[in-house]
Amino acid sequence: MFNIKIILVAILFPFVGLSQGLLTNTVNRNITSLNGSWNYIIDPYENGYYNFHSEVYDQKNPTSTSAFYNNYHAKDKLELVEYDFDKSPTIIVPGDWNTQKENLFYYEGTVWYKKSFDYLLKENKRLYVYFGAINYNADVYLNGTKLGTHEGGFTPFDFEVTSIVKRKDNYLVVKADNKRSLEAVPTVNTDWWNYGGITRDVLLIEEPGVLVQDYTIQLKKGDVNTIIGYVTMSNPVQGKKITISIPELKIEKEIQTTSGGKAVFEFSNDSGNWGTLKYWSPESPKLYEVLIKTDHQLLKDNIGFRTIETKGPDILLNGKSIYLRGISIHEEYKGKRATRESDALALLSWAKELGCNYVRLAHYPHNEYMLRMADKMGLLVWEEIPVYWTIDFKNEATYSNAKNQLTEAITRDKNRACVIIWSMANETPLSEARNSFLIKLINHTKTLDSSRLISAAQLTRNENGIGIIDDKIGEYVDIIAFNEYMGWYGGDLATAPEVNWSSPYNKPVVVSEFGGGAKQGLHGSRDERWTEEYQEYLYQQNLLMIDKIPNIRGISPWILTDFRSPRRMLPGIQDGFNRKGLISDQGMKKKAFFILQDFYKTKKLQFD
Ligand code: GCB
User: Fold this and answer.
1) Which stretch of DSSP H or E encloses residue 126?
2) If you average pLDDT over residues 212-227, what whole number do you get?
3) What CA–CA distance (Å, rounded) separates 239 from 504?
4) C-beta of 578 in contact with ligand 1 (< 6 A)
5) Greatest pairwise CA separation for the chain in angstroms
6) How far apart are CA 302 and CA 25, in angstroms?
7) Could you tell me how far CA 551 lies from the centroid of its own chain?
8) Percent helix, strand and coil across the chain, each rounded to 5?
9) Using CA atoms, how far apart are residues 196 and 188, in angstroms rounded to an integer?
10) 293 contacts: CB under 8 Å, gap ≥ 6
11) How many angstroms separate the CA atoms of 435 and 452, rounded?
12) Are 370 and 413 in contact (CB under 8 A)?
């Protein structure tokens, strides 16, 4: 009954781009999951999207002269009889298609997804469809009506479907396309697997007519006695009453929206009636229940309160100098895109076992489960967008895309106490165009969130045997972060501890990556690449070197586990995996894991 003609039927309806401001805190809303089994059609030539003269079916094209197109109009509807969703195979959502279907392992292109569902929408309620992430481009249709599109593989988006949803037989169709392109973010060249598909949860969210769309609530920068924030309603209603309460602190305040549907607030503890606020920290990741109430809605969240700032070389968490005992992590678990809460728990439990108080979530915004889990487990987070290597810095559209991904990430995660650093980029080649691109991103970040620290993983240069960390972007960031691969992509491990580093900036320095590859279970001498002993020695020598870097306040070695990368094909060793993990893709620890664990025990004694 459902074939791909449902896409074509869209032409009969006006395009209803109902996307609006992102709904946040979706896990605590009134949700129905659309996860599970979906039908899919592989469409490498995009026959479901373009006609044979490459005209897009779902958009009217009055200038078209194609006979086929005219014919199409004459009939008003064309049935692509060569497709049938219901007879098509199924795939699990969320999940990458590469590891679910052997014939899709290396596939980069379009796959159509379809999910049917019934839904009884209560009177005066609104319904939204929410996607945690689709890599990379998505076109979304419900019951033949185009809802809109989204670009960017790692951030959420939603569409309102109140007027389209039916009691029975709804069909949600998604065109997911993971083709790489030069002007995209990331660009064509990365060192990770380009997993395709609907890789995060799909939800229906039922809400009242006027709903709380978004809010923020946190300690005021530099003032531990004031909580500030705002609530944004879905409609520009004026005078809407909202109550914010934090029962454990005996806070209950009523605020009202102004004309834009937004209410800004500031509560202070001048009279001491909150009692003692317990600050969120890795040692004590205290989360308070926060309630946001309107006459039709009660939204709960769990929020931690902490301050984060820098002073000269120090990173101050709740006023106390800390050392970031970190590890870098890709969103991958056991050779697949990590999709579930249990994956987040497994990955972050390894970080805890290493003795970490911090994780670098590389190289794109991870699943929201990771952030919520880090909040609960007490792990500070570096969150970044995929402005990676050689993206097209001169291209305005590339900038808008990066800015949009950053906005969506900050919108989703700004209430997570764990997030202390927004990172703008990774190892981007120096140029004026790149500098102005990153400076614009930094300024934009500050307009959205002025309370957190800003960084970017930089490259360094070598001058007379001294490592110089002087990228111009250092002037604009709060933390000087750089990647170094001493003993792997050059440099002599034996003399590594004698190497000196220098930076013109009196700011905290973090080594955002270092490491080397080892095949778990391969043993030999410390001079033999790919052995666990080589990697172990590389960690020992790098840690000695890093400890002497002026202003050093943390590290996030590369990387927690081996991860898939098409750049890494060495037979018998890599076999499609970057082997710099401290843990294999099958979950087996390598010797270097224990070197880092020991180092963190010492750092804990020094700083905590
Ligand atoms: C880097 C990149 C990271 C790579 C890593 C490597 O500098 O930031 O994405 O995976 O090196 O293994 O070469």
Assistant:
1) strand 125-131
2) 93
3) 51
4) yes
5) 78
6) 10
7) 29
8) 20, 30, 45
9) 14
10) 242, 243, 244, 245, 299
11) 21
12) no
Closest CA to ligand 1's atom 3: 191
Ligand 1 nearest atom to the CA of residue 190, by list position: 9
* CB-neighbour burial class of residue 65 (10 A; exposed 0-12, middle 13-18, buried 19+): exposed
Task: Report residue 348: phi and psi, to 5°.
Answer: -75, -25
Residue-wise pLDDT for 140-188, tens only, equals 999 989 999 999 999 999 999 999 999 999 999 999 999 999 999 999 9
440, containing H or E segment = helix 432-448
530 Cβ below 6 A of ligand 1: no
Q: Is the pLDDT of residue 3 over 50?
A: no
484 C-beta closer than 6 A to ligand 1: no
Q: For a pocket test of ligand 1, which of 390, 578, 579 has the largest count of ligand atoms closer than 8 A to its C-beta? A: 578
Q: Do residues 9 and 76 touch, judged by C-beta distance below 8 A?
A: no
Give pTM, 2 decimals. Answer: 0.95
Please give the single-letter amino acid code of residue 349.
Answer: S
- Residue 535 Cβ contacting ligand 1 at under 6 Å: no
CA distance 196 to 134: 8
Strand 453-458 to strand 480-483: parallel, antiparallel, or no bridges (unpaired)?
Answer: parallel
Contact, 229 vs 253, CB < 8 A? Answer: no
The alpha carbon of 191 and the centre of ligand 1 are apart by a number of angstroms equal to 6
Query: What are the residues facing 145 on neighbouring strands?
Result: 142
**Ligand 1 atom index nearest CA of 362:** 9
Atom of ligand 1 lying closest to residue 483 CA: 7
Mutate to test the pocket of ligand 1, among 513, 577, 579 (most ligand atoms within 8 A of CB): 513
| Distance from C-alpha of 168 to C-alpha of 94, rounded to nearest angstrom | 23
Cβ–Cβ under 8 Å, residues 357 and 112: no
- Using an 8 Å Cβ cutoff, are 501 and 467 in contact? yes
Question: Closest Cα to residue 587, out of 278, 323, 338, 239?
Answer: 338
Which residue do the tokens 């990458």 mark? Answer: 96
80 has a pLDDT exceeding 70: no
Kindly write down the DSSP assignment for every residue of 128-141, as one continuous string: EEEES-EESEEEEE
Q: For residue 485, report the distance from its CA to the centre of ligand 1, in Å.
A: 9
Tokens of 601: 């025990």
Count Cβ neighbours within 10 Å for each residue of 472-481 and write b for 16 or more, e otherwise: ebbebbbbbb
Ligand 1 center–CA 518 separation, angstroms:
15
Q: Sorting pLDDT into bands at 50, 70 and 90, what band is 5?
A: very low
pLDDT tens digits for range 534-588: 999 999 999 999 999 999 999 999 999 999 999 999 999 999 999 999 999 999 9
For ligand 1, what atom is nearest to the CA of residue 578? 12
Cis peptide before 136 (omega within 30 of 0): yes
3-class DSSP assignment, residue 404? helix
CB-neighbour burial class of residue 278 (10 A; exposed 0-12, middle 13-18, buried 19+): middle
